[in-house]
Amino acid sequence: LVFFCILNFMGGDFSMTKNKSPYDIDGVPALREALPLGLQHILAMFVANITPIMIVGGALNLPAEEISILIQASMLVAGLNTFIQTYRFGPVGARLPIVVGSNFTFVPLAITIGNNYGYEAVLGAALVGGIFEACLGFFIQKVRRFFPSVVTGVIVLSIGLSLLPVGIASLAGGFGATDFGSFENLAIGCFVLIVIILFKQFAKGIWSTGAIFIGTMIGFILTLVMGKVDLSTVAQAGYLNLPMPFRYGFIFKSDAILAMMLLFVVSAVETLGDMSSVTMGGADRELTDKELSGGIVADGIGASLASIFGILPTTSFSQNTGIITMTKVMSRYVVGLGAVILMIGAFFPKVGALLTVIPPSVIGGSLVMIFAMISISGINLLTKEKLTGRNAVIVAVSLGLGYGLGSVPDALAHFPESLKLLFGGSGIVISGGIAIILNIVLPHDEKIFE
Q1: Is residue 294 within 8 Å of residue 88, measured between CB atoms?
Q2: Is the predicted pLDDT of residue 120 greater than 80, yes or no?
Q3: Which of 16, 195, 230, 371 lies 20 to 30 angstroms, CA to CA, from 412?
């Protein structure tokens, strides 16, 4: 009841006409449909949301009980920031079904800063960096012309391609698993993928749009019967937890802040790509200026809010944009409901523990398709115009260098550490940066390239 009152207060459109689908951006599906649709968003992002703080906390030797508290804070902040992005508060938020969670991009830098100056310096740099990105969002409309479909298409396609190995790793059992790549893990992941395909292609209504949730639940039941699910962590989890802000202080170091600000530019580029994927994949249109600006502002403010609660910066989650591309469910209500589930789980550790015991191979079966659908959104953006001449050069060079260097990070082995953090890894920054530069400098006369 409180949730519906909040939506009414923020101007949500609950009036459904005969010509309006409940899956449109302002549509409101029945709760029996919205609940599994919202849950499948949470299932796709949950482990990725809590993993960064587990990695950084372990690397910085934070006590186990502290990491447990910060995991709950990660759930709360992810839910809050998802709600802000989805429903917009003033100029803050894209008013799009954007799911937000902890950002892996910041993990290596956070460990470096934490080892040199302490965890409080990580939070101080993230606080300033988030404010910097929010300010960038207010001016991004002025440079919108530098992001035509050929540029945003390269960014979205780079995101999808860079995530595919993550999906395959999950399908094989998850990084670090003792049985990684076993026939059993691969069979489970492929089984889940087949179930999702069957429901998506041959079922109707909620059985089709909720295919990811259904496939994941069937896979979970299968692994439970096979004895591959350990429920002891659920039994050991507490019943109530109250995440509190300002649990840690802030230390401000200029070099840490500068490095963090550079990575927030990366975060802005990735968020731009995710928002473009949502509008193109779910509604077959490009971003509006208002959506672009509000989304980047919210990304920055949300990251600063995360630092106040003692966790790593947050950003939009690409796997969830893939769900929207696949299901065509653009309803903000669905994602808002998922955000509420996350926030509720933050106060009840057993809820979070239950989601963490789902085997990676089960989640991986859906992630492979989800990430591939992001790539499809990028291709759709790229092919809005004829992919020849100038556009072909932009795509070829940016993807060739970006995806290539992202696949072979050792090619940057002799670069300074700060540049390796910025340009290495996924290659999204290199692809996007080269596409932007070539779009500016290459002439529009197609004859030059014939």
Answers
A1: yes
A2: yes
A3: 371
